Amino acid sequence: MTMPERDKPEHDTPEPDTPGALLHLLTWLSPAFPTGGFAYSHGLESAVESGGVTSADTLRDWMTDLLHHGSGRNDAILLRHSYRTDDLASIAAFAAASAPARELAAETLHQGSAFTAAARLWLPDTLARTFAAIGPIAYPVAVGALAAATGIEEDAATIAYLHAWTANLVSAGVRLIPLGQTAGLAVQHALEPVLHATAALTRNLPLDAIASACIVAEIAAMRHETQYTRLFRS
């Protein structure tokens, strides 16, 4: 599935990598930005319940696989193509359809819609109208489109999104396994080269490269739908 690339935005926006652009990115992907990400575990709660993730090492391995071969990689591809496209609605529809489980679809659509609502102060009018026409929108699609419309450099937006996504799931693991904060930070530190590798790998991948080899993680997300006791929505 190949999408046309979008020209750079014509309105007055910060130049890439200026302090203004960096400040926007830090605000949007801060844990304090109200996307509701703390409520989702991306199937991790089910994996902990079944004994698949029980320690800092297994959490690190789980996250590494998602970033290299699963939804982390796919989100980075979606973000990059949303950054470049003239047909955001088509990519948004593709992103919603490609979620492998009901709760994972709800997770990305709810967070994306919350992101666009919270980011309205930064939205150019044209993009605001596009978001309104699309309706519920996947989180990486919303982030990529807004980053492009406000002059934030694509690679910076990608690595910042992956970092925020990873940090949220590591935080979920800290609560679920449970782990101490120091162990959680050690996992986050160990994943830094994985984040950089995923960002670099996805730079030139086509939209057709979206796929997943993380079948166990996706089954865990499906099983979570009927899990008896739950702290998280996915």
From TrEMBL:
Record keywords, A-Z: Chaperone, Cytoplasm, Nickel insertion
Biased composition (Basic and acidic residues): 1-14
Places the protein is found: Cytoplasm
Annotated region (Disordered), positions in chain: 1-20
Alphabetized GO MF terms: nickel cation binding
Any single Gene Ontology cellular-component annotation: cytoplasm
Chief localisation class: cytoplasm
Family stated for the protein in its record: Belongs to the UreF family.
PANTHER family cross-referenced by the UniProt entry: UREASE ACCESSORY PROTEIN F
Function description: Required for maturation of urease via the functional incorporation of the urease nickel metallocenter.
Assembly, per entry: UreD, UreF and UreG form a complex that acts as a GTP-hydrolysis-dependent molecular chaperone, activating the urease apoprotein by helping to assemble the nickel containing metallocenter of UreC. The UreE protein probably delivers the nickel.
Protein name per the record: Urease accessory protein UreF
Gene name, Swiss-Prot/TrEMBL: ureF
